[in-house]
Amino acid sequence: MKKSTNILTQFKEFYNQKPDENIEAVLERFAIFGGKGFDIEYYLPIDELIEYEILEKYKYLHEDITELTDGRPLLHAILTGIALGDRRTHSAFKRARVSEKEGLEAIEELVELGLVKLEKTKQKSTSWIDSDRADDKLIFTSPFLRFWFAFISPIFKGIKDGDFKEFEKRYENHKAGFTDYIFTQLSYELLKLNSKDDKIIEIGSYWNKDLEIDIYAKTESGKTIVGTTKYTNSKMKKSELTKLQQMCEDADIKADIFVLVSKNGFSSELKSLKGENIKLYTLKHFKNLLK
Q: Which pTM was predicted?
């Protein structure tokens, strides 16, 4: 397993294995195999690729993962809790069925091992009361690790024995939304690339106990950028912008620029609103990350 680098470097390295004009195919494969550390048989359909490169090679990949975690069940349980949930620390602890003390100690170790990174909300704290603060979230340092702990590690016994039925069912139930997370992370990189005139100095997501905003950024000049990402086959409509504006109002965020990032484009009504304060990006813009 290759030592992790940042998400943009991993994306470029993955693309350079087999450059492809179909950026959707690149992104969906990257969400599974990114950071795996060696070439894949890129020409195969995704389902066949997973079987050939992961399920049939389980033994060797398991050995690599075990080297990273020392095979400790607690670390594996926490990692699976992160991969399958909303990435919030307490949600991961609940899924892993561990106490907060055990969970926090495990996370500290996982961060030191370079398997996850801690992400704090961009919400400004207004209280010293712990119960009023939003939980931290955790980010896998490579897409492949996230895929492994979401779909392979929890049901390893069947896969180890060559029975892939449980995996197929599990993957089928979750694959539709699996690329969303990577799409949002790469959207951060896209915005940084397109903000050279007023450099972005911080970017991430905003969340509190009641809502979550995919993109929240600050620029050198002090502007606030907020945004929504949507990785579906339907076009993004004006209602998404209205919803984002309402969330900003609810969270008392004074946004200067609204950004919408859509896999499959925008409605005519939404495109007519595009301007200095409303920016629209589609999947084709992600090609600029690879230059």
A: 0.91
CA angle 61, 152, 13 (to 5 degrees): 55
Q: Are strands 224-230 and 212-219 parallel, antiparallel or unpaired?
A: antiparallel
- Give the Cβ contact number of residue 100 at 10 Å: 11
Tell how far CA 90 is from the center of its chain. 18
Query: pLDDT truncated to tens, each residue of the chain (291 aa)?
Result: 655 679 999 999 999 888 888 999 999 999 999 988 767 777 789 999 999 999 999 999 999 999 999 889 999 999 999 998 889 898 999 999 999 999 999 999 999 999 999 988 877 655 444 455 678 899 999 999 999 999 999 999 999 999 999 999 999 988 878 899 999 999 999 999 999 899 999 999 999 888 999 999 999 999 999 999 999 999 999 999 999 999 999 999 999 999 999 999 999 999 999 999 999 999 999 999 998
Q: Which domains are assigned to the chain?
A: 7-178 (1.10.10), 181-290 (3.40.1350.10)
Give, for 130, the enclosing helix (H) or strand (E). Answer: none
The one-letter code for the residue type at 192 is K
Query: For the sheet containing 278-282, what is the strand order?
Result: 200-207, 212-219, 224-230, 257-262, 278-282
Measured between its terminal Cα atoms, the distance across the chain in Å is 26
Q: Which residues pair with 228 in a beta bridge?
A: 260
Give the whole-angstrom CA distance, residue 139 versus residue 87. 7
86, amino acid identity: D
In order of 77, 81, 153, the CA distances from 158 in angstroms are 18, 20, 10
Which run of H or E residues covers position 282? Answer: strand 278-282
